[in-house]
Write a structure and sequence with these properties.
The chain has about 160 residues and is of the alpha/beta class. It contains 4 helices and 8 strands.
Length: about 160
């Protein structure tokens, strides 16, 4: 069961924020990382949005179609190269990444941040606390999911209020 604080963590509105972000690199900070991933999977299945998850144990896998993995993407460097060379739209979620980011990866991240075109690729780094390399400052759009401070909407006199 999802905790009440994380219940509305990943919503259509958050997905729209990710899609409308001017940059391709997004840092999403939340205390409920696992709950957020479950909700991203549900959102990918409901909306049909191409979303992928990278983790150090399995590499890149599809959130919509469970079991569909990209071979040779366990190392973060290989996963970033795959995203850079892919010609398809997608949102790529990276978790447990901080120990795996090397200085050589910053070159790939810079190239991804400068990508433009119709087939946008968004990289969303999801963590409870960010410690990104200093070279990457200014390249990331930050999304802080403020779990505890989201007001609950209530129906009063036929209108929804906060």
């Amino acid at each position: 069961m999802v905790e009440k604080a994380a219940e509305l963590l990943v919503t259509q509105k958050l997905l729209e924020q990710i899609l409308k972000a001017p940059g391709n690199l997004i840092a999403m900070e939340t205390t409920h990382v696992n709950d957020a991933l479950v909700q991203f999977r549900t959102l990918a299945m409901r909306t049909g949005t191409s979303m992928y998850l990278w983790d150090p144990d399995g590499g890149i896998s599809s959130l919509r179609e469970s079991g569909l993995r990209v071979p040779g993407s366990k190392r973060i460097t290989d996963a970033l190269r795959y995203v850079l060379q892919s010609m398809h739209f997608g949102i790529y979620l990276f978790v447990d990444f901080s120990a795996h980011l090397k200085s050589a990866d910053t070159v790939l991240l810079r190239r991804i941040s400068r990508m433009q075109g119709a087939n946008e690729r968004k990289l969303v780094f999801v963590s409870s606390a960010f410690e990104l390399p200093e070279e990457l400052d200014g390249m990331f759009e930050r999304l802080a999911v403020d779990d505890e401070k989201q007001p609950r909407m209530r129906l009063r006199d036929g209108r929804w209020i906060k």
